[in-house]
Amino acid sequence: MADFEKDLEYAVKELKIEFSFSDYQLRAMKSLYENKDTIAVLPTGSGKSLIFQTLPWLLQGKMAADRPMIVLVISPLNSLMQDQVISLCERGISACYISIDASTVTTCAEVEETKYESEECSDEEMDKKLKTSAGIESIKNGHFNIIYLHPETVFVKEIGKLLRSSVFRGRVCCTVIDEVHMVAEWGSDFRQSFNRLGELTCLFPRVPHLAVTATATPSALEELIALLQFKNCTKVLANPDRPNIYLEKKERLPNIHKFEKYDLIMSEVLAQLKDKYIDFPVTIMHCDNLESLGYCFQLLCHELGTRAYFPESSTLPEDRIVAQFHKDYTERMKIHIISELRKQNPKVRLVLATVALGMGLNAPSIATVIHMRPPTTLEKYMQEIGRAGRNGKPAKALCYFNTSDIAKNRKGLDNAMRAYIQNTDKCLRLHLVGHFGYNSVLFSGEKAMCCSNCKVTSAD
User: Fold this and answer.
1) Do 233 and 249 sit in the same domain of this protein?
2) What is the bridge-based pairing of β-strands 322-325 and 350-353?
3) Domain range for residue 442?
4) Which of 111, 158, 309, 430 would be a feasible disulfide site paired with 314, CB 3.0-4.6 Å?
């Protein structure tokens, strides 16, 4: 007879997990163990990925299999896949991701040799490992336990044939939609394959299906469950408040000041960088667009001079303390930045980024997230600020805005985001969680440490 506690103990041992699961993680895993479709809406940094990473070993015992099972993870961005594959490979777990056109399979070079034995690797060695690619043939024998795919990849003819093979029909124990809020955000017109992901429940009707995200309103949740064709779905929900993140808004110059509006913002950042140098709090700065990102990056490099590198004598791109991350950047440098951000104390201290730097990135060192312009939705905002403070230490989310940023003619801007920016007197934290269906916050500290609005009212 299947025993959840016993099989979980086995999975923990195989995965080399050294901390206890939260009640939310356990509820989600127990639901999947009982073969129930499950959707988990848990705060950023709460270990959502660990739920499905545990399943190949957790369900191995239940299914009386002679080796770990296979989990298929549908993920929206390369940066997310790279980050998680690196993390899994470091723990000796066989994982890979398939390119969007299904032409290559990328993993860590030594997984097959090390099997499940963990080994320490330098960033340079891990970077080389992730460049190791092979064709689809390399996964047909079911060697990999966790396989990451883009939504579009699922519907490539060769992948469809693979998923219907006897190996996969017999060993896939769960399908996962990671960052499931992207189904609604991108599925209508940008990446329509998101809207077809419900077909996975038909392809694997005998296994449980999981969807995870940090942000979903109650109404969006019901729409996702229907679209994904989840049956008798278990909902595991938690208040999305991150009490260690201080929320702040600041007004910036109007758009008529094309570059001056960036100069003023960057002057504050530059002053701190020059003063603190390698001790500057690790920061992600979301830029308006590629033009503003390029301008700010060149400004930083020019003003910092040799102090844009550590050590100052270096001229290697890998030694910069400031970096840029966007879709057109080289794959090698993107992997390097992800590897850096995963460190407890990275060399890179400031990353100028677009949305290409995926939500869900496991970067414990990030202390500050700055938006040079508000995103178009509160869902995006909550996801992006959630990268800050994952180590539990005090962190900050700073959002700049002007009247054009919240104008009614701004494409894609929803009323909820506009209302948040226009809120000048009520608690920003309570406003934010209220959008996701909660009427209280987890923050319990001094009012002045909650948000910029509370700081003003506490001083009155």
Assistant:
1) no
2) parallel
3) 245-459
4) 309
Most confident of 49-53, 181-185, 355-359, 361-365: 49-53
3-state secondary structure of 234: strand
The DSSP bridge partners found for residue 449 are none
Residue 155 is classified by DSSP as: T
Q: Can you give the pLDDT at residue 354?
A: 85
Q: Are residues 207 and 256 in the same domain?
A: no
Q: Which amino acid, residue 162?
A: L
Cβ neighbours of residue 88 closer than 8 Å, sequence gap 6 or more: 53, 94, 95, 146
Please report, for residues 218, 284, 287, 378, the alpha-carbon distance to residue 281 in angstroms, rounded to integers and kept in the order given: 35, 10, 18, 25
Q: Which two tokens stand for residue 380?
A: 């995006």
Residue 429 has pLDDT above 60, yes or no: yes
Report cis status (omega within 30 of 0) of the bond before 68: no
Residue 249 phi/psi, 5° resolution? Answer: -120, 145
Q: Quick one: 408 exposed, middle or buried, by C-beta within 10 A (0-12, 13-18, 19+)?
A: exposed
Residue with tokens 């429940």: 201
Could you give the number of structural domains in the chain? 2
Asked whether residue 91 falls in the same domain as residue 194, the answer is: yes
d(CA 127, CA 419): 43
What is residue 107's predicted lDDT score, i.e. its pLDDT? 86
Mean pLDDT of 418-432: 97
Q: State residue 116's pLDDT score.
A: 31
Sheet containing 350-353, strands listed edge to edge, beginning at the edge strand earlier in sequence = 245-251, 395-401, 368-371, 283-286, 350-353, 322-325
- Reduced to 3 states (helix: H, G, I; strand: E, B; else coil), residue 170 is helix
For residues 80 and 152, state if they share a domain.
yes
CB 372 within 8 Å of CB 284: no
| Whole-number Å distance between alpha carbons of 179 and 193 | 14
Which CATH number do you get for residue 341? 3.40.50.300
Would the pTM of this model clear 0.70, i.e. be above it?
yes
User: Would you say residue 264 has pLDDT above 90?
Assistant: yes
pLDDT at 283: 97
Burial of 266 (0-12, 13-18, 19+ CB in 10 A): buried
Question: Residue 376, Cβ neighbours under 10 Å: how many?
Answer: 17
- Residue 176 above 50 pLDDT? yes
Task: Read off the pLDDT band of 322 (50, 70, 90).
Answer: very high
Which residues touch 71 (CB under 8 Å, ≥6 apart)?
Answer: 52, 53, 55, 56, 145, 146, 147, 172, 173, 174, 175, 176
pLDDT at 416: 95
Q: Which residue has the tokens 């844009």?
A: 308
H or E segment and range at residue 57: helix 55-62
- Beta-carbon count within 10 A of 3 CB: 12
